[in-house]
Amino acid sequence: MKEYKVDKLKCAGCGACIPICPHQAIKFDNDKKVIIDKEKCRQCGKCMEVCPFNAIKYE
Amino acid sequence: MSKEIKKITIFSGINKFGEKESFNKIEIKSGETIAVVGPTGAGKSQFLYDLERLAQADTKSKRKILLNDKIPDKEWKIDPKKKLIASLAQSMNFLTDLPVEDFLKLHIQARGKVANQNLIKEVIDEANQITGEPINSKMNLLDLSGGQSRALMISDLANISISPIILIDEIENAGIKKEQAIKILVEEGKIVLIATHDPSLALNTDKRIVINNGGVVKIIKTTLREKGIAYYLNWIENSTLEVREQIRQGKKIKDIKLFCEKI
Fold it and tell me: What is the reported pTM?
């Protein structure tokens, strides 16, 4: 099944995706980049749309 | 009164060549933020002026403004107590020789509200969320820096002024947290229009009205991606502001927050 994933090389850690997520599924990881909680993610795709760096992929 | 203005409608006029503008009407709803963008001299200030004047085809652009689908009452233009529209420009400064606290008290009373300490404190606290240089209630208005003055004016507009519509002309270089300033105004249900060249400010809105040669040429709805870009730009600018403040206070700079730690 496809899922939303963060490309850690592209993520700048700005956190723009965090307040956009309607399900609070995104948070900062220990490396200060973001991580998506697969349990909470409902695949709305807003994070991918908002990311200034195209760091979120759906695959 | 803030609650009474639910909608502004702008009917198109003409550009500087006398040609009709490229829209029929623009509707702006309560709580919306609109950027007015375009090259220098394109007519951004005229657009804000038409709103401030509540133009009825009586300015050079021939635009017409309706409030809640009606032609606005004339008294709204004249009576300062009913002041519908408040403006904020880069060059504005306080000219009153008073401590912050006393000025706020006077302003609150002039607006017919009770000047309790809580409200005064709230205005100063919110101003301090906008500026990096803390303001305290005993400071004299004349001693405030440009950033502190601007922050206090914005917090005053949000919390004390009854004007439901706020027009802002070029606040980009004021040394304040702009997105926080806009947030505070919008949270109070104000309609905010900002003429700006600043990318993060222009993208941190609901729509932007593009002006050229004296006329509106385009109305662009802000995309989610653009909001993400604005978020990132704001983040960089706030980091810059923080370093600037540390330099101002004579500190050494050890590091810069490269990553946003919390929201």
Answer: 0.81
Q: For B224, which of A28, A32, A50 is closest by C-beta distance?
A: A50
Q: Given an 8 Å threshold on Cβ–Cβ distance, is B228 in contact with A50?
A: yes
Count structural domains, chain B.
1
Q: Which of A18, A33, A49 sits opposite B224 (nearest CB)?
A: A49
B229 or A31, higher pLDDT: B229
Q: Which domain holds residue B152?
A: 7-248
Any domain includes A44: yes
The strand pair at A4-6 and A26-28 is best described as unpaired
Burial class (CB in 10 A: 0-12, 13-18, 19+), B50: buried
Q: Kindly state the percentage of chain B with pLDDT values over 90.
A: 50
Return the CATH number at A42: 3.30.70.20
Burial code (b: 16+ CB inside 10 Å, e: under 16) for B106-128 equals ebbeeeeeebeeebbebbbebbb
Q: How far is A12 from chain B (nearest CA, A)?
A: 7
Of residues B115 and A12, which shows the higher confidence score? Answer: A12
- In tens, the pLDDT along A46-59 reads 999 999 999 999 99
Q: Residue A30 falls within a domain, yes or no?
A: yes
Instruction: Over range B43-60, report the average pLDDT.
Output: 91
